[in-house]
Amino acid sequence: MDHIRNFCIIAHIDHGKSTLADRLIQRCGAVEDREFRDQILDSMDLERERGITIKANTVTLPYTARDGRTYELNLIDTPGHVDFSHEVRRSLMSCEGALLVVDASQGVEAQTLANLYLAMEFGLTVVPVINKIDLPSADIDRVMEEIDRDLGLDPFESVQVSAKLGTGIDDLLEAIVAKLPPPKGDPQAPLRALLFDAQYDAYRGAVLLVRFFDGTLKAGTRVRLMHSDAEHKVEEVGNQRLKRVPVPELSAGEVGYVLAGMKSLAGLAIGDTLTEAERPAAEPVPGYREAKPVVFSSIYPMATDDYEDLTKALEKLKLNDAALIYEKDSSAALGFGFRCGFLGLLHLDVVQERLEREYDLSLILSAPSVRYRIVLNDDKEVWIDNPTFYPDPAQIKEAYEPYIKATIMTPERYLGTVMELCRERRGVETTYNYLAAGRMEVVSQLPLAEVLFDFYDRLKSITQGYGSFDYELLDYRLGDMVKVDILVNGEKVDALSQLVHREFARPRALRYCERLAKTIPRQQFKIAIQGAIGGQIIARTTINPFRKDVTAKCYGGDITRKRKLLEKQKEGKKKMKIVGSVEIPQAAFVAVLRTEDEDEE
Amino acid sequence: MNPGLYLHIPFCSAICPYCDFSVMPAASPARPRFASRLGAEVSLAAPTWRDPRPFDTVYFGGGTPSQLPPEDLERVLDACRTHLAFAAPAPSVFLEANPEDVTPETCAAWRGLGVRTLSLGVQSFSDEALRFLGRRHTGRQARAAVETALAAGFDTVSIDLIFGLRGQTAEDWQLELTTAVSLEPPHLSCYQLTIHPRTRFGVEAKHGRLSELPEDDQATLFELTHRFLADAGWPAYEVSNFARGPLHQSRHNRKYWNHTPYLGLGPSAHSLAAADACSPARRWWNERGTTRWERRVAAGERPIEAQELLGPKELAAEALLLGLRTTAGIDLAGLRARYGVDLLAANEALVARLVDEGHIVVRADAEGGRWLVPTLSGLAIADGLAAAFDLSLRN
User: CA of A569 to nearest chain B CA: how many angstroms apart?
Assistant: First the structure.
């Protein structure tokens, strides 16, 4: 076990985690140079493009150190976003050490700190890595100071690298071997293996990535998943190189994959513990938590004919995204669709992009919502994440909404505006600390619902891109929610209803009305667009009818052209939704429901 | 109605910056041989024109037909008379002319050819507006031309005017209308300036240096035109056309609006043949460019660029969009009988709403027929109205 090192790389987005992983893989010869593809671990196109890691990937690297011994380095890649913190935790739990990457010019960011705390929570040995030392703007002295002051780590333990150029990679590998501890565990004890990730393989079904804490596992053994209480027969175990390499057995301390004839990822819970069915462990690996969706949105196909395609696409997506949940939904305005639950906004984004890109679908997503806990007058409790099912306000005794603890890092000069943003978004107990000269950390308890609505974009905008943001769920607190409906010529557009804090009902309704007014084409009649809470109108806009809409000339040569135009218009109308006798193009829904906020600038 | 004959004469002394018709500078070498080429097309087209009814209108349009010498116009008419059936004693001839070509002599020559309606491309009586429009005459010349034409004994003299020019106010435009009616032409066409993409104005607009008036201003001028002229005794019979009494309404142009067949000859001219026992209704059009048109005629070919067949669905759509542009409106029984469309039944709620908003009225005629008639505000949005109707066919 002495020759094994299990470690992960943790970093703020853009600090070069994936590039560093690539370099380590390349240096260890796990891949031929000519096969090399940048950011090998990020296997989804989307990940490579966005430069973020969505799903963790893991690789075993053989490394012959300067002491002449060959080590098995298990690099456990962690997802780089807060939405996936559940998966991050499982990954960290599988390691003994972590490389904490800090950008030589950006320095310590909110996420760096959050990640460090997480790593410390799991008792990992942390080696700071200063990356991008080749950049002209690199300020190594300042970053070392930040590592000392903000992270409380010994800056002289840090390794300076340029993952891009490959500088310092050998020193880093030596540091991994020398500074990170080997795993512990008893190969003879009953099997305890932590499921920290799962992938979907079109031919083999679910590929379980596991860390073995105790015991030994071979093909043919019957294993039991302790939390989901399912049994499977192991078909194959092996090392996860860039390809899967089967081995006769895996045992305590090791990291590898397990194939057990599972057709999909459905029902698999990351964090579950594998044990032997015949000789089960007494206790599972601690720390299991169910991944719960926190953000909800309805997805509709832009063209109602595409509903079948959307159904199939979601089924396929679900195969390798166990966290995605969905059920049938329908809207009078938008037809059939699905109500989906996501781990967070980025998860929602990723699902949307994958559906659009990999399955070539055009989608409309309803305004994202959190899940509210509603206590009714008869003390019955209901959970509501869809405005459609919001109870009659007269029936509601109390409504609770989820709060988060947001950690924001910002240059000092934006402190005032950041505090103001938190206040605007109903933040409470907002505090701040000096991290280093000119750098502040703002911590605020915010309703999650307020973060869903363009919070991150606003933060980026008011800090000119320097602000960073991380959050964790706290608890549910009493809130004052109302359901805001949008009416077109007096008729409710169900897909646009949303749950909003009373304080924001009017501005939000007005914004929806204005966006609709901009995107619904003018017609022969005046169109009234209203926002309402119950029967009370709180916002209103009007689309004035055409006064002049006729061409001047219509003689022999103009008639065909005019008729064709008319035919085209009629064709276009078939694609519109009719609400309150007003034709609303799909584009209007898209414009209204987009979260970004360009019309406020 | 009997079919109409349209003859396109593409030549102009200069090309106006707003014009998107098939035009060509009058200095072109194509002009001297144009009459014989057009005559050749007449002889090519005649055998395929199967409508037995004689033509009772002949319309010289352009371009500027007055840029062709009267002798050339006569040659063309002779060719038509030889190969096509003309109504007896003679069809009514329409001629478009530019003010600078109008003299007592030319008027006499045109009268001699049988021209009964002279349509003058006045466009404006204001020198400033005329300069903006790239015209070659002045306001004074325009007035003189109208007076000369009126004195020459044509049945109808018509004046074309353009409104909605950059910076034009309601007062400016009312002054133009006042001048026009003071000359008492029996017919007026008032076109709102339209900026077409492949024109000089179109290029200017693309670069943001020119635009059509804002919609509200357009609406104001449009309503002003209709109200002013109705009050003065020139009620509208179409979106852009006004006449002092039904006899002066353009008999030829009305054929375009009610699917009466017409044969069009010359570059870019369109033709419509009614459905018969062996073919649905058909529209076809000639090569737009004079050079291509000429080359094909010279080769003994019909210079047709393309054609389309018009079934009941297409004809119904056209009847709707054309009918809504006329003050007569849409003959509902006729629409049902000819194309199987019950417009009222298929659009009950819409019609009720449009009536309520004052855009249309449903009116009964003396024979018990019902007509869907646009009001002034309805005429102003006729294109939008046409798009709003459901044209479901009965079968």
Answer: 7
Q: What is the CATH number of the domain that holds B320?
A: 1.10.10.10
User: What distance in Å separates the CA atoms of residue B222 and residue B285, rounded to the nearest whole number?
Assistant: 31
CB contact under 8 A, B317 and A563: yes
Interface list for A 53-82 with B (CB within 8 A): none
Q: Which of A41, A51, A55 is nearest to A351 (CA)?
A: A55
Domains of chain A by residue range: 4-179, 192-276, 295-365, 372-479, 482-600
- Asked whether the CA dihedral B150, B154, B155, B160 is positive or negative, the reply is negative
**Tokens 């078939």, located at residue:** A574
Q: In this predicted structure, which of A22-26, A382-386, B39-43, B64-68 has the lowest mean pLDDT?
A: A22-26
Beta-bridged to residue A217, according to DSSP, are A250
Look at B358 and B276; give whichever has higher pLDDT: B358
Neighbours of A140 (CB within 10 A): 14
From the options 3.40.50.300, 1.20.1250.20, 3.30.565.10, 1.10.10.10, give the CATH code of A4-179. 3.40.50.300
List chain B residues with CB under 8 Å of A569.
387
**Whole-number Å distance between alpha carbons of A152 and B113:** 105
Percent of chain B past pLDDT 70, that is, above it, reads: 99
| B249 in the same domain as B350 | no
Test A546 with B216 for CB contact under 8 angstroms.
no
Residues 6+ apart with CB under 8 A from B334: B369
Q: Which of B255, B272, B295 is the last residue of a domain?
A: B255
Distance CA B300, CA B24 (A): 22
Task: Check CB contact under 8 Å for B349 and A552.
Answer: no
Q: Which of A524, A553, A566 sits opposite B381 (nearest CB)?
A: A524
Give the span between the Cα atoms of B321 and B316, in whole angstroms: 9
Kindly report the nearest CA distance between residue A592 and chain B, in angstroms.
Answer: 25
A570 part of contact set with chain B, CB < 8 Å: yes
**For A295-365, which CATH class?**
alpha beta
Query: The domain that contains B124 carries what CATH number?
Result: 3.20.20.70
pLDDT tens track for A242-263: 778 899 999 999 999 999 988 8
What domain range includes position B42? 4-255
Give the ipTM of the model, two decimals please. 0.93
Domain A192-276 has CATH 2.40.30.10: yes
pLDDT in tens, A66-85: 999 999 999 987 765 555 66
| Cβ–Cβ under 8 Å, residues B241 and B250 | yes
Number of domains in chain B: 2
**CB neighbours (10 Å) of residue B392?**
15
| Predicted TM-score (pTM) of this structure | 0.68
B289 part of a folded domain: no
Q: How far is CA B104 from CA A214, A466, B117, B154, B194, in A?
A: 115, 82, 15, 12, 33
Does A563 sit within 8 Å of B321, measured CB to CB? yes
Residue of A nearest to B390 (CA): A570
